[in-house]
Amino acid sequence: MDQVKASSPHRRERAVNRRVQGDLGEFSAMEWLAAKGALVWIPLGHSPDVDLIADFGSRLIRVQVKTCTYRPAVAEDRWHVGIATNGGNQSWNRATKVFDRGSVDYLFVLVGDGRRWFIPSGAVEAARALALGGRKYSEFEIEHGSAIDSLIHPKDNVNKLGDPVPGECQSGQMEQTVNLPAMPTQVRILPPPLPATAQILLRPKRQATIPLRPCEEAGLIPGDRLRVQAVGPGRIVFERIERQPV
Questions:
Q1: CB neighbours of 95 closer than 8 A, spacing ≥ 6?
Q2: Of 122, 96, 85, the residue nearest 107 (C-alpha)
């Protein structure tokens, strides 16, 4: 759950430590996995690779969770996510453990603005860091979660109540909201996510976004008209309607 350390001299002040930042990432992963129908387990004790285990009944999925709030000034649309682990603060012997694709099944990433990715470990092409937010790995991006950047590097304490009116005595908790997020150890949660190249989110109005890679492989471009046919329970085929010559 470590992020790449910024080399910029303009390092932002942190409001919470990296352990808390990592917890926020795990809560976000639990919430998303729960929405997919899994029972989520947290390993007992320290695990260098697996942060969560998602139980889908017939299958267990090992999930590693990473968070990131760093974007370089030269590419503010990219998030630089560290996926290597440097160990504990006191026991670290300067040996870095790089990402091991064989030790987990999926990599879950939450970044500062709430964007999230669920990447099969076999599709991860790096061992130390990823640049997310562009075309690469775009087919593995999932629904947005809650933004964490303002919690990690707040300009103002968004949970703090406003300054009291002169002569007024305020009551309650002044430094944070009363109802803090729940911290579940297991959550009842649908079958495992589909292969990433086929993942489509069907929205309430039956609108869907087709991932970029399948469109490119099928030669589809914006403006194409598609014929949609059902070919069995849970299966739909999209076929391009050829343009008529003018």
A1: 87
A2: 122
Cβ proximity of 87 and 97 under 8 Å: yes
Query: What is residue 119's three-state secondary structure?
Result: strand
From residue 222, give the alpha-carbon distance in Å to each of 65, 206, 215, 228, 240.
34, 19, 9, 16, 12
Q: Please choose, from the candidates 173, 119, 172, 165, the residue with its C-alpha nearest in 3D space to the C-alpha of residue 142.
A: 119
pTM (2 d.p.): 0.60
Work out the pLDDT band at 76, boundaries 50, 70, 90.
Answer: confident
End-to-end CA distance of the chain: 56
Residue 205 CA to residue 211 CA, distance in Å, equals: 18
Residue that is written with structure tokens 């999230």 in the block: 116
**For 14-44, what is each residue's pLDDT tens digit?**
877 888 999 999 999 999 999 999 999 998 8
Locus of tokens 């370089």: 72
